[in-house]
Amino acid sequence: MIDNITYNDFVNKVHSSSDIIKVISAYVPLKKRGHNYWGCCPFHQEKTPSFSVVPDEGFFYCFGCHTGGNVFKFLSLVENISYGDAIKLQAERLNIPIPQKKKSDREIEHENNIKNLYRIHEMAQAFFHNCLTKTSYGKPGLLYLKKRGINNDIINLFHLGFAPPGWDKLSSAFIKRGINENLLLQVGLIVKKKTSGYYDRFRERIIIPIKDEKGRTVGFGARLIKDGQPKYLNSPETLLFNKRNLLFGLNESKKYIRQYDYAIIVEGYMDAIALASHNIANSVASLGTAFTAEQCKKILRYTSNIYFCYDGDSAGQNATLRALSIARGQHAAVKVILLPDGSKDPDEFLQKHDAAAFNKLIDNAVSFIDFHLHYIMQNIDYTSLEGKLKAVSFILPILSSIDNLVESNAYAVKVSQTLGIDETDLRNELQKYRKHSNQSSAPSNFQISQTINSAGDSAAIKAGRHIITRIWQEPDVLDYILATTPINEFENKQHREILTFLTEQIHNNNFINDITASEKLSDDSYTELSRCLVEKKNTNESKLLDDYLKIIHRAHLEKSYLEHSLRADELERSGDDRFQQELIKIQRIRKEMDGVK
Ligand SMILES: [Zn+2]
């Protein structure tokens, strides 16, 4: 056993001996353009590169599927191993001897903390389940579930529960049992009041425990049983609860996924529960619309066949397109289950139809090309010439991604028939496209995917990225930045976390690099940091630091202007005099806003 200083030395040695370009190039052909290297992302399916590496900073980031990190993160994802094992793998490749690691006090403390977090989730799950099944508080919950056809077997299988009404049922019970309130706060079971004290986050809701694939509860979803908002409420992201890495229901369904040799991926946990109630036991929920490469890897341990059944609305359709590209990038065989008009999601479909009807939908699941055609028919008016061109440019990259010629020919026929285009014309276009995309991997004429432009992001978010990059490269500017713009003025949560981390490191004279960042930041913030650093090298935009700070400050003022205006309206409507004070505040903000134009 060796002590921790030596282990850190070992990690640093492996890190400094690793050339991120060389490591990634072994998996992905990269081409240099400007400061960045570009290639087709190994974590999702694409023809034009949106995967970029900056060797100076030691980060990679994909603008298509938003995966990013340092060299070890890359190895852990591409080899499907843990971060620690990725360090060891790289050490082996570099012939650096691996020391036996002795745990530091901090690591022991961290492990104990994790154990406590698991324990508290376990206790809370039992509390809610008990409340549903054994107390009078749970009656409305049971009634609601029964009405939706969810029987006791399913309630017990998923350990469904009910959060009692009242503001402190859980917190007072847990604090009586000696649970530290900080721990409850940390897992989001209680919420801090604005004044002082706490209240229970979940009240009068059906509780759906969200478990990892080992069956350990790591978070909760909660659904209202009456009308109101928000209909769904989830645990906040914690050390254990990271939605990117979780699939709801995997622990319960993995046996069946393996047995039937395919998995059905739905958006929400209520969809997965509804399917299970109808004896369709091989489904999991991706917990929202963004299917990730990490989730895909988990499925691939049990089957290589994935059927997506996302919501029928346009958000669901777009999510399906993205999910298909990620799954195909991981070499999964994919299909899409289409819901008939009038059914929002699988849950709603199963309220009106039986299992046999859903099984018929499964039998009729369409190929990924057919789904793209379906998408065109729903979203593009292909009767006009302009629409036809749009449809063709949408479908060409998809057709050209099929390696099997027989298959791609069959689809070319189908596409030309559906869109009413001459088949020869389509084939010519396809050939041109193929030639062009082969050429474009040559450095002289290198096309980079359009997805990298962050048009959807606000000016304040972009400014936040520039400021973070600036501090990373030049830590001395930090104090100036903090003096003019406090961290809470940054609207993006990940940016605030990154800035807090940077401040801590810099003020303690600690070294900042990708390793410390990966240890200290949450997954989402670490990925966002990768994006900041990779994106900066890619744009030539160079405003002055003060301009970026002004953008942040102004966005912050606009937000509080809006908040106070809404509050003033509310107070005035309810005849509350305090709206006058709000008006004064609004005027003051307005004046300040005029000052930072
Ligand atoms: Zn990607």
Give an overview of the whole structure.
The longest helix has 30 residues, at 105-134. The protein is an alpha+beta fold and 597 residues long. The protein folds into five domains: 4-93, DNA Primase, Chain A, CATH 3.90.580; 105-241, DNA primase, catalytic core, N-terminal domain (DNA primase DNAg catalytic core, N-terminal domain, Alpha-Beta Complex), CATH 3.90.980.10; 245-365, Dna Topoisomerase Vi A Subunit, Chain: A, domain 2, CATH 3.40.1360; 374-452, no CATH class; 453-597, DNAb Helicase, Chain A (Orthogonal Bundle), CATH 1.10.860. It has a five-stranded antiparallel beta sheet with strand order 1-2-3-4-5, with helices on both faces. A four-stranded antiparallel beta sheet has the order 6-9-10-11, covered by helices on one side. A four-stranded parallel beta sheet has the order 13-12-14-15, with helices on both faces. The protein is 54% helix and 10% strand. Helix 17 (385-400) runs antiparallel to helix 18 (405-419) and helix 20 packs parallel to helix 22. The model is unreliable at 439-446 (pLDDT under 50). Zinc ion (ZN) is lined by residues 41, 43-44, 51, 62, 64-65, 67. Zinc ion binds at residues 41, 43-44, 51, 62, 64-65, 67. GO terms for molecular function: DNA binding; DNA-directed RNA polymerase activity; zinc ion binding. This is DNA primase.
